[in-house]
Amino acid sequence: MQFTKLQGAGNDFVLVDARGVDQDWPALAKRICDRHFGVGADGLLVLLGSEQADICMREFNPDGSEPEMCGNGIRCFTKYVLERDIVPKASIIRIETGAGILAVEPFWEGDHVIRVKVNMGEPDLRWKTIPVNTYEASTRDDRLLDPDVVTQMGLSRKDVFFDGRLMVTGQGSDLVVTAVSMGNPHAVQFIDTPVRDYPLHDIGPDVEFNMAFPTRVNYHVVNVVDKEHILARSWERGVGETLACGTGACAMVVAARLHRYVGDTVQVSVPGGELIITWTGSGPVFMEGPAEVVFTGEWPE
Hints:
This protein is 16% helix and 38% strand. The chain is of the alpha+beta class.
């Protein structure tokens, strides 16, 4: 089986063209993503045909689970299908994902796609559909919530899990997080101490599997630098700590905008690089970032 290893801001993937291929994808993901006995990756991208869009992307985490979407993965996927003429070159292509059909805009340098801008769709702030089990989380504090943003989205304060307190095992105090869905669930925590020093490996698993999130959750810790710049680290559901999380970067900016911390366009600095996120406070979130091929190879079936 031929594969291509790609990365976007350090978030790395193994991509397989699965058209006409029958495979146990969760089992393959566990083997091929293993960093000691496999190729090593944050996820397996599976390329399939689509009757609804130009092409279809599925992703499988290293634990075999299938997330709804992957922001860094879809940029890498876009580079692959365009550079190999699997999809005709166009200013916008449409990709079917578990979170719906997303429109992506490639940026070329000669024959190579170097960056991709993705319409990530509208964020969902409704705790019921993220979902959040509010019985497992203590009181919410919405004093910092921007009511104009909530109103523009057709919601009320009670719909949003904003600055809610999570009970986390081993913590001296509850964690305060804001929940956002970008087609997959995210919990965003703003902290004053440097994110580089945060014990993410200790706390990340407890948040991912917290009873407040019945489908588990992606967890992010964020420093706000200024209105146009944030620093962050991410613990991804089914993966662990990653160098970048595309949907997570979008969720961070949405949560920061709800707090009035940032403006419309924000540079998100993560351990693997930089992503540019744009959100006006309503409508879709746009994510822009790099995509690179690392190497190609053959996996023994």
